[in-house]
Design brief:
The chain has one domain (3-306): Alpha-Beta Barrel (TIM Barrel), CATH 3.20.20.220. The chain has an 8-stranded parallel beta barrel with strand order 1-2-3-4-5-6-7-8, surrounded by 6 helices. The two termini are 25 Å apart. Helix 6 links the parallel strand 5 (171-176) and strand 6. The longest helix has 23 residues, at 261-283. It has 307 residues and is of the alpha/beta class. It has helices at residues 3-10, 55-66, 81-93, 116-126, 155-159, 183-193, 206-216, 232-241, 249-257, 261-283, 297-306; strands at residues 15-18, 38-43, 69-75, 98-102, 171-176, 197-202, 222-226, 287-292. It is built from 11 helices and 8 strands.
Length: 307
């Protein structure tokens, strides 16, 4: 069991960090001075359909430089079944063991042949047991798992599937959007698919997280995403384009009035995480922090240092 998995079990408030990925092939400026308390580094995968360096390759570079476990984001909508398998096999050979399965923002150029719930099941029930992913019939539907249309596989059914050489050992997480309509139902579908941990989108509101936790009583660890805000333009983008939770009129007014928006956002994030840490201790839920760089690693790492 790698240190990230252990941290979710043994650490009261585990912390992960997501640096910015390069757009191109220059990787000389790798993150430095990552705090010891960081359990793993997360690498995103073509956010909003924009090309970034392959996350497994960049993840390997980060692992070699920082000595941390790596979590690779997989934008499932971008893959065919053969490509999905070959990419994950390659990542496994490179030593990556943690995945975060996400749908990602809609992109007209993506084939969308596999739903995120199907991607989770493909890894946890097939690849991790040494089986080639079976083909999928019919049209892909959001949060509809064609692998789960039948009951769990019997021994006889398993014998019908093609084996590959070896088997993977991936620990698979999924995205969580607590403010999204019907999110408790979507969360349960991802649990049923085999998700083993969750990461939320950016948020700046502890109450939203607490309300969701109390509603669904999650049995799996949840890492709450947040990160620095450095400009009014960024606030507008987060609120209007990404629909980020917790950017209330009151908070925006506070940020606008600050001499340094970036520093004030650090204080906001730290305060939110402290409230969530206290809640986790009192309620015995498995909660942690997922701090995103958002082009300002100095501020993101300062958030981590203050926790």
């Amino acid at each position: 069991m790698d240190s990230f998995r252990c941290s979710l079990i043994n650490t009261k408030f585990p912390i992960t960090y997501e640096p910015d990925s390069p757009k191109g092939v220059l990787v000389e400026n790798l993150p430095e001075n990552i705090p010891e308390k960081v359990s793993a580094i997360c690498v995103y995968n073509n956010p909003r359909g924009e090309p970034k360096l392959d996350p497994f390759v960049y993840g390997l570079k980060l692992k070699e430089k920082c000595g941390k476990d790596i979590i690779v984001n997989i934008r499932v909508q971008d893959y065919s079944i053969p490509l999905f398998q070959s990419v994950l096999w390659g990542g496994h050979v490179l030593g990556i063991r943690n995945l975060l399965m996400v749908t990602g923002d809609c992109c007209s150029r993506s084939p969308f042949l596999i739903d995120v719930t199907e991607g989770i099941t493909a890894v946890t029930e097939y690849l991790n047991n040494g089986y080639i992913m079976p083909g999928l019939s019919g049209k892909t539907k959001i949060h509809h798992n064609r692998y789960k249309e039948n009951t769990s596989l019997t021994d006889n059914q398993q014998q019908m599937f093609e084996k590959f050489e070896g088997k993977t050992d991936f620990f698979v997480g999924a995205a969580l959007l607590p403010a999204r309509r019907k999110e408790p139902e979507i969360y349960q579908k991802k649990i049923d698919a085999g998700a083993q941990f969750f990461m939320t989108q950016l948020t700046y509101d502890s109450k939203n997280i607490i309300d969701f936790m109390e509603k669904v009583n999650p049995a799996k660890p949840v890492l709450v995403g947040s990160g620095p805000i450095t400009s009014l333009k960024r606030i507008s983008f987060f609120r209007e384009q990404l629909k980020i939770v917790g950017l209330s009129d009151k908070l925006i007014k506070t940020l606008k009035a600050a001499k340094d928006i970036g520093e004030k956002s650090v204080e906001v994030c730290v305060s939110m995480y402290q409230e969530l840490r206290d809640f986790a201790r009192e309620s015995n839920y498995s909660l942690g922090a997922h701090v995103m760089s958002i082009r300002h690693p100095d501020l993101a790492l300062e958030i981590i240092r203050r926790l």
